[in-house]
């Protein structure tokens, strides 16, 4: 009878460990899938940028420095490999794109261009989709990081190689509320 109770306790502990492990694996896979979704949207943005730059070039050819910076940062963003590198590169690219659109304000013909407006609208849609994908990714990372940090999961997560994931956060200056002056 004692052996039967001991066996039952051991089986319950093993089942409990398996459940925790499977939940952690599921959450890790969700974070990887959520990052892939963000990455797809970032690729869509990268594919749109050359068209946008070419359109602006036709109207603002003497603004070469800004255009070259956008192209350079796009190339950096597409060649980044780790999530941390991609996040940093994407934040720099976002700043450069804002400068590009600010530059467009100085060229009424460019602002009136149907092609530029179409590209700007498409980029705005992509940016919104990126924002949604980033929010989902951050929510999944939060759940994963919480799951590997709480007791008793942390007793299993650490030895089995589950490490915290980083959030896709925007830089402080992107969070700032724009000032409107009349």
Automatic annotation (TrEMBL):
SUPFAM superfamilies, A to Z: LemA-like
GO cellular component terms listed in the entry, alphabetical order: membrane
InterPro entries named among the record's database cross-references: LemA-like_dom_sf, MamQ_LemA
Main location: membrane
Keyword annotations of the record: Membrane, Transmembrane, Transmembrane helix
Coiled coil location: none
Transmembrane regions listed in the UniProt entry: 6-25
Membrane topology category: Single-pass membrane protein
Localization per Swiss-Prot or TrEMBL: Membrane
UniProt similarity note: Belongs to the LemA family.
The protein's name: LemA protein
Annotated organism of origin: Thermodesulfovibrio aggregans
């Amino acid at each position: 009878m004692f052996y039967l109770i001991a066996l039952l306790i051991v089986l319950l502990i093993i089942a409990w460990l398996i459940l925790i492990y499977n939940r952690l694996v599921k959450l890790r896979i969700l974070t990887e899938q959520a990052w892939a979704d963000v990455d797809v949207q970032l690729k869509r943005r990268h594919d749109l940028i050359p068209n946008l730059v070419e359109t602006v070039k036709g109207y603002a050819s003497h603004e070469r420095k800004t255009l070259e910076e956008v192209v350079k940062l796009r190339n950096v963003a597409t060649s980044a490999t780790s999530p941390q590198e991609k996040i940093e590169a994407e934040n720099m690219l976002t700043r450069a794109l804002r400068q590009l659109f600010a530059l467009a304000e100085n060229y009424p013909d460019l602002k009136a261009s149907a092609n530029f407006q179409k590209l700007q609208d498409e980029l705005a849609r992509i940016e919104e989709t990126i924002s949604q994908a980033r929010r989902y990714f951050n929510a999944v990372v939060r759940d994963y990081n919480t799951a590997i940090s709480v007791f008793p999961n942390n007793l299993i997560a650490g030895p089995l190689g589950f490490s915290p994931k980083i959030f896709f956060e925007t830089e402080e200056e992107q969070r700032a509320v724009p000032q409107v002056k009349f």
